[in-house]
Amino acid sequence: MICSNNSRWGNEKIKEENEKEEKNKKETILSVNKNLFSPFLKSFFVRSSDAMQVKKLKLNVLTCLVDESNVQLVIRELQAYMQMTDLAEEAVEAIGRCALAVPSAASETCLATLVKIISDPNAREEIVCVAVVVLKRLLHSEAPLNLLKKVSRLMENVKAPLTRACILWLIGMHINKVPNIAPDLLRKVAKTFADEADCVKLQALNLA
Predict the structure, then answer these.
(1) What number of other Cβ atoms are within 10 A of residue 45's Cβ?
(2) Distance between CA 134 and CA 150 in Å, rounded?
């Protein structure tokens, strides 16, 4: 039985490594021969009937092919994928990658999409978590004041530790823009500090 389990584990590891290697090869081909694939961009749009592995691979291809000429088309397509339960989180991540790849053309659209997600009271918490993390990645240096206000209000409803920590981080990074909001946010977190996750406590202390 032990040998059988070890063999199965070994086969799974080999399969995982092979899949990773194959993915890296495909991404390398795309990066080197991007112009060859760009005319066929729509061929990589995801279909609901695609297997999950195919869906994820297509998302990777789309974000590899994105440029200033097609970024708005790609983002609109990714926004549609956010309605797919099994692909929503990956689609949000992909929107963030588009903003990083083509910041001048995509940042406003991407930020608007992410803000819409985190402001939607009916959005799944997992999606909100991903959206906030992507925002953190995008807003290292600049963050609109209205966005910071919206994000700070999320602390009252969001429960996921990573999301709460990211919100505190965003406010702390741009505290000069929100001198009146930061103290109120800190007071709210102080009430639940003992029960917060370590990552939230750390960001609360940084904000203080």
Answers:
(1) 15
(2) 15
Question: What is the residue-wise DSSP string for 144-177?
Answer: -HHHHHHHHHGGGT---HHHHHHHHHHHHHTTTT
Classify 105 as helix, strand or coil: helix
Q: What angle do CA 153, 105, 71 make, to 5 degrees?
A: 100
Q: Buried b vs exposed e over 104-119: b needs ≥16 C-beta within 10 Å?
A: ebbbebbbebbbebbe
Query: Residue 39: what pLDDT?
Result: 83
Give the pLDDT of residue 92: 92
Between CA 110 and CA 145 the distance in angstroms is 16
Distance CA 157, CA 150 (A): 12
Which pLDDT score is estimated for 25?
47
Half-sphere exposure of 142 (CA within 13 A, CB side): 5
What pTM did the predictor assign?
0.65
Output the pLDDT for position 105.
56
The residue assigned the tokens 């409803």 is 157
Tokens of 3: 């040998």
**Nearest-angstrom CA–CA distance, 144 and 56:** 31
Residues of the chain with confidence (pLDDT) below 50? 1-6, 8-9, 13, 15, 18-19, 22, 25
What the block records as the tokens of 44 is 């990589």
